[in-house]
Amino acid sequence: MKLDVKTVKPSVYELTVDVDTKSWQEAQEKAITKLGENVNIKGFRKGKAPRDLIVKQLDQTKILEEAISVIINDVYRFALTESKVIPFLQPSYNITKLSDTELTLVFQVVSTPKVTLSEYKGLKLGHDEIEITDEEVTAKINTYLERGAELVLKETAAELGDTVIIDFEGFVDDVAFEGGKANNHELTLGSGQFIPGFEDALVGAMPGAALDVKVTFPDNYTEELKGKDAVFKTVVHEIKTKVLPELTDEYAASLKLANVTDVASLQIHVRYEVNTEKEQEARQKYIEKVLDHLREATTFEIADEIIHQEGHRLLDNFKNQVKQQGMEFDEYIKMVGETEEALHDKYVVEAEVTIKNFLVLEEIAALEGVDVTDADVDFEIAKMAQMYNMEEARIREILGDNLNNLRAEIKQKRTLDILVSENE
């Protein structure tokens, strides 16, 4: 076989292989043998007729197609071995020459990105100081109070934070538009679920009120509605407000938190929680600061295809999340005033950051000799089993094919630990 390598663009190669006649004809013979197994010729057992009779019964195009499937993996391996290109994505290929004596395959291969890492030690970019305020402790305590909160009907005007039960139908130029109608819809005012201005317009409404809510669709909304003025004819059936329980020693004890028996011990517990959360936030913020610096200072050679494929994957994951919440994606983007194109662009930007961060950390892991053994994975599974009060075998069953993801998470955590410790 003969190979020609052409660089299409950074990290994308065109590998052209001229298959030698002998190998190509051997592949065709194998194809004939395989296809011939299903040929019936009178006077012979199925697939046992002489070769020339079988060939006469076969379509030449099908022979060549089958022969390509027979030989293509060997040709691809030859191309990778000779070119020393390491593929990152599944390749595409074209057939530029095809006959019973000639075969030329052209593979387009997106290779593994190349990284020239900048200095990653001794950066000392500065940590944020941790401060805990009484207001933060109170807010955290309120999250525990909300566990016992109740939604209670109220007869007074709706306020931000209240939940309203409404019917609505949207009109543009007095014509109802698709997806703009719902009955008995539950909406928390201030949640940002609806078009800007809609929720604010319901503040002050009374139970039983019927009102016209006037809004303007954002410019990044769907093509048929963006920038247009609309009126939502809205009826407020009910207004509910959240009522928190009283903070007492009895309620504090009922939370069943470790060493919490009264209000005083709950406050100590909460202050420790807030401090731990802030330490984790500060650590994550510092990691992001270091990674931001390294992304800017590092040279990457990444094919656009890799970034766009990851962007598509992130968008598809988001679509699935929307569907799991019981909403069609088209309805969602109309409700939030977004377009699929804008979301895709956002995820492509996110994908580029994610991929570059991953490449930086992989390079650091290689330089630092970070390795994850089977014993390390076993230890993490044992911790998970203890945490969830489950058998280790059950944890492994749940993880299934994601066991390698757990290994990757352990590796990344250790690499991040190194990155933080080397830049204190």
Q: What does this 3D model show about the protein?
A:
The chain is an alpha+beta fold and 424 residues long. 48% of the residues lie in helices and 21% in strands. It is built from 13 helices and eleven strands. The strands form three sheets. Strands 6, 7, 8, 9 and 10 form a five-stranded antiparallel sheet that branches. It has a four-stranded antiparallel sheet with strand order 1-2-4-3. A two-stranded antiparallel ribbon has the order 5-11. The longest helix is centred in the middle third of the chain and has 35 residues, at 263-297. The chain is extended, with a radius of gyration of 32 Å. The two termini are 55 Å apart.
Number of strands: 11
**Mean pLDDT, all residues:** 91
**Category by helix and strand content:** alpha+beta
Terminal-residue CA separation: 55 Å
Number of helices: 13
Explain the layout of strands and helices.
Layout: E1 2-9, E2 12-19, H1 21-36, H2 51-57, H3 60-83, E3 92-98, E4 103-110, E5 114-116, H4 134-145, E6 150-153, E7 163-172, E8 175-188, H5 198-202, E9 210-216, E10 229-243, H6 249-254, H7 263-297, E11 299-301, H8 304-324, H9 329-336, H10 340-368, H11 374-388, H12 392-399, H13 403-421
Antiparallel strand pairs: 1-2, 2-4, 3-4, 5-11, 6-10, 7-8, 7-10, 9-10
Helix pairs in contact: 1-3, 4-7, 7-10, 8-10, 10-13, 11-12
